[in-house]
Amino acid sequence: MAQTTQKWVERKYWNEKLETLPREELEKFQLEKLKEIIRHAYENSPYYKRTWDEAGVSPDDIKSLKDIQKFPFINKKTQRDTQGVGSFLGELAAVPEEDVVFISTSSGSTGVPTVSPFTKADFDAFQDTESRWFWQIGMRPNDRYVHALNFSLYVGGPDVIGAQNMGALCIWGGTLPSDRLLFVLKTYQPTVIWTSPSYAWQLGEKAKKAGIDPKKDLNIKKIIVAGELGGSIPATRKAIEDLWGAELYDFYGLSDIFGACAAQCEYHDGLHIAEDHILVETVDIHTGEILPDGEVGELVYTTLQKKARPLIRFRTGDIGYIDKTPCKCGRTHGRIHINGRKDDMFIVSAVNVFPSDIEAVVRDIKGITGEYLIRIFEKDFTCKYAVEIEKNADNPKTDEEVAAEVSTALKARIGVKPARVEVHPDGGLNTRSEHKSSRVIDERHQDYNI
Description:
Blueprint: H1 2-10, H2 16-19, H3 23-44, H4 46-55, H5 76-82, E1 100-105, E2 115-119, H6 120-136, E3 144-147, H7 159-165, E4 169-171, H8 178-188, E5 192-195, H9 197-209, E6 222-225, H10 234-244, E7 247-252, E8 262-263, E9 271-273, E10 278-283, E11 297-303, E12 314-323, E13 335-341, E14 346-348, E15 351-353, H11 355-362, E16 368-379, E17 382-391, H12 399-414, E18 420-425, E19 440-442
Parallel strand pairs: 3-4, 3-5, 5-6, 6-7, 16-19, 17-18
Antiparallel strand pairs: 1-2, 7-8, 8-9, 9-13, 10-11, 11-12, 12-13, 14-15, 16-17
Helix pairs in contact: 3-4, 6-7, 9-10, 11-12
């Protein structure tokens, strides 16, 4: 029995057959599930029945994966407009309320918070996928895991169950204050933690100021981050890894679907997305035209198995691309690369600028703390941006020299220099938070976004 258990622990994949399906077999599986979910949505969701009839499409139109392109898009506005219409769950829902066992909600940062319902089968599949991601990063039953994410209606809260299901000892940390969380890390010596990139950095810095060396006094070996783009920005990842002496893995999820829908493997070359649950398209952000795999555009998802509220051709607002070429880890599911949010992108001198581009520069310059604030504003009827940063107390350079260094680096990376760079002392920016950080202030009156 002990040998059997040891063999199970040493296996590389959570579900080898599923994770290594040849592309042809994976797409055959996707087509089967797509036909099922399209019919389920048509027969049970008032919204899909009405809008598809108006568009002249039906489940019988699905003969291949490409046939999904015949169906209309939906987006966040669709969710908000249909929520609560006709029933508590709204017109997009495709099951009665008595079949729903769990709901989460979005943050509401771009409008009214939207409810995401799950049947028991939906929820169990959600947690099995989380177990897959935990196993993928090398977490095992002998690990101690701290789940330092919000449990209040947040879809990432229940992901801790996926860690329990794969056998890890789990500490439901939630949004503990920093001093309490550091006490947990020092006292219980967990090996894995999940939080946001900005908070992982800030927590490590607070540990040092409290006389705790994250590398020597704590036992964190792996850090999972999500909710912000930092985990996929090499400079940010390296800074956090150097601070903690741990390996960092980026996860990606949507409240609209479930907690983590995609995760990095040991090669950190994009995030494997659960293609058994999600069909991915990439479209032109202006026209909606379908783009080839590998080209950057807006990612569009169709859920293949979630019955409570299927999302058919959901425009996510995330800008990126999918790479379906084989990964060195042996997994065949495609890898998504996220550049940023369509909502966050701004255009300066015809150049598309994402906050993640600015973060990549700021986190890579020595002598500054890595904290930053972006201000977008108008001048002479054109869009401009300014960046505020913090200088380390032991940096011998003048503020003017630091500002010039940052400005030059931003011009080299992005192609357009900031209108100004303001330098603050360490701690001078109010960007540190217990979890997600707000780093963009839009002061424009005209709309320069796409």
